[in-house]
Design a protein that fits this description.
44% of the residues are buried. The protein has 295 residues and is α+β, with helices and mostly antiparallel strands. Strands 5-4-3-2-1-17 form a six-stranded mixed β-sheet. The protein is built from five helices and 17 strands. The protein has a single domain, classed as 4-Layer Sandwich (Nitrilase/N-carbamoyl-D-aminoacid amidohydrolase).
Length: 295
């Protein structure tokens, strides 16, 4: 019978240039989360390296790895040892010249499912379209022994359609591995507004869909390769939101932390009875959502 509570841990990390060091930090944080009672541990987007999409460099495609592969095997063994489930975010090499930004859910030794990032940004210092083929698995819910997860990735978090379609498949928790931050030269003028917008849109997904939302971000400054005066200051702030939009756990802007939260899965039923947004949807009137804009 499904548990009614779920203890989760979000690993907010600062990334090192050395991938081995990032793995060491990730493993230590996963062990800490498990030791503190977490049954589901989630890592940030592309946690094994610096955020390489700040520039377009074909040689950086060498960072990609197969799924399944050595990384998933190593972390599956760890999940099995600790008796936990894990959400990993990896740069997937699917074939020569075909790469994805992919999240994998490990249920102990078993791969419960995977999701390939659907919305791919192309903005200054976020040149992801150069590296990532858009996902072709669709929006999906991944059932584990403890809950039903909807795993989306970073830029996906700005799109209510993605959250809705995933929730409609039964997701109880929407998980967003993330790499988001400030351009330092803009921080003074718009930094607070940008971070607040990021939190607000995800809280709105929790409210509109009556489910939990967890966002896991990296933190710290990472220079643009070859341009040490430029870069991205990742703003941490990993958090968990309840179905009513209340933030129940939040990490700071700066600093590594294993953020723990206890989810009352029974709250989803209670919230949807009180705020029956799914009941009152006018599914007969939403055909226009299939249009890019207007008619």
């Amino acid at each position: 019978m499904q548990e009614q509570t779920l203890d989760i841990a979000l690993v907010q990390m600062q990334m090192h240039e050395d991938r081995t060091e990032n793995d060491r930090r990730a493993v230590a944080a996963i062990r800490e989360g498990a030791a503190r009672g977490a049954k589901l541990v989630c890592l940030p987007e592309l946690f094994r390296s610096h955020y390489f999409c700040q520039t377009e460099d074909a040689d950086l495609c060498d960072l990609a790895e197969p799924i399944p592969g050595p990384t998933t095997e190593r972390y599956a063994a760890l999940a099995q040892e600790l008796g936990i489930d894990l959400v990993l975010s990896l740069f997937e090499r699917r074939a020569a010249g075909v790469y994805h930004n992919t999240a994998v859910v490990l249920e102990g030794q078993h791969t419960a499912g995977m999701y390939r990032k659907m919305h791919i940004p192309d903005d200054p210092r976020y040149y992801e379209k150069y590296y990532f083929t858009p996902g072709d698995l669709g929006f999906r819910t991944i059932s584990t022994r403890r809950c039903r997860l909807g795993v989306l990735v970073c830029w996906d978090q700005w799109f209510p359609e993605a959250a809705r379609l995933t929730a409609l498949q039964g997701a109880e928790v929407l998980i967003y591995p993330t790499a988001i931050g400030w351009h330092p030269e803009e921080k003074a003028a718009v930094g607070d507004t940008q971070r607040d917008a990021w939190r607000t849109i995800q809280r709105s997904h929790a409210i509109a869909n009556g489910c939990y939302v967890a966002a896991i971000n990296r933190w710290g400054f990472e220079p643009t390769p070859g341009r040490t005066e430029e870069g991205i200051e990742f703003f941490g702030s990993s958090f968990v939101t309840a179905p009513d939009g209340a933030v129940i756990a939040e990490a700071p802007v700066a600093g590594s932390q294993v953020l723990l939260a206890r989810l009352d899965l029974g709250a989803i039923e209670r919230q949807r009875r009180g705020w029956p947004f799914l009941r009152d949807r006018r599914i007969d009137a939403y055909g226009g959502l299939g249009q890019r804009f207007g008619r």
